């Protein structure tokens, strides 16, 4: 998850923090455990991340980038609107299963807390991701109505809600319901992306 142009010590700290979160969750991740895992000094740790909140923002940014990269990969390689819509839902569920602790951090934080914890670079990357999704939708017939936030909520919202329930009590695989959720997303979005037959 290392970014281009990021200082090596900072990148090591972010990688170490993400690894700790993946292994034990954010609540059990201490600043010193991250520092030790990254192999940097206290000075480096507190230079890049003066507070635990600053480190949390970096972890959230790395998690969002990884999640959005996985989703964009599905859209970018899809063969059409139905394929893209359904593959994105399935990939979201698979990503949650592969990264449950990181997914819990991203999906259970209140939206205002999540937005408040990301830095400007992450916010800009997030805007770029949604702009690319909007372009993909337009390329498949979306007329900018309803609003993008509504389209995304209809598309991925049910899978996110299912993921929250699964994360609270993991049993089986969330991908077991992927076909149902993906088909429901297509039934909802299909009329926005394909011409209606008179």
TrEMBL record:
According to the UniProt record, which residues make up the DNA-binding region? 30-49
Q: Does the keyword Nucleotidyltransferase apply?
A: no
Keyword Lyase attributed? no
Which Gene3D superfamilies would you find in this protein's record? Tetracycline Repressor, domain 2
Read off the SUPFAM superfamilies from this record: Homeodomain-like, Tetracyclin repressor-like, C-terminal domain
**What are the record keywords, sorted?**
DNA-binding
| Limits of the HTH tetR-type domain | 7-67
Highest taxon listed in the record's lineage = Bacteria
Which GO molecular function annotations are given, in alphabetical order? DNA-binding transcription factor activity; transcription cis-regulatory region binding
Matching entries from PANTHER family are given as: HTH-TYPE TRANSCRIPTIONAL REGULATOR PKSA, HTH-TYPE TRANSCRIPTIONAL REGULATOR RUTR
Q: What is this protein called?
A: Transcriptional regulator, TetR family
In which organism is this protein found? Frankia casuarinae (strain DSM 45818 / CECT 9043 / HFP020203 / CcI3)
């Amino acid at each position: 998850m290392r970014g281009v142009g990021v200082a090596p010590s900072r990148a090591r700290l972010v990688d170490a923090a993400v690894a700790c979160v993946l292994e034990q969750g954010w609540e059990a991740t201490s600043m010193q455990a991250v520092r030790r895992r990254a192999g940097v000094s206290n000075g480096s740790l507190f230079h890049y991340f003066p507070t635990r909140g600053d480190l949390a923002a970096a972890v959230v940014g790395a998690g969002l980038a990884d999640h959005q990269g996985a989703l964009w990969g599905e859209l970018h390689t899809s063969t059409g609107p139905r394929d893209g819509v359904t593959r994105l839902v399935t990939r979201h569920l698979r990503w949650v299963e592969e990264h449950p602790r990181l997914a819990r951090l991203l999906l259970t934080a209140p939206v205002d807390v999540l937005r408040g914890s990301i830095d400007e670079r992450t916010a800009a990357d997030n805007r770029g991701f949604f702009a690319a999704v909007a372009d993909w939708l337009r390329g498949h017939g979306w007329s900018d109505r309803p609003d993008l936030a509504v389209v995304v909520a209809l598309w991925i919202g049910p899978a996110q809600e299912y993921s929250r329930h699964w994360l609270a009590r993991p049993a089986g695989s969330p991908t077991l319901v992927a076909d149902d959720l993906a088909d429901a997303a297509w039934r909802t979005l299909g009329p926005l992306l394909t011409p209606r037959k008179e």
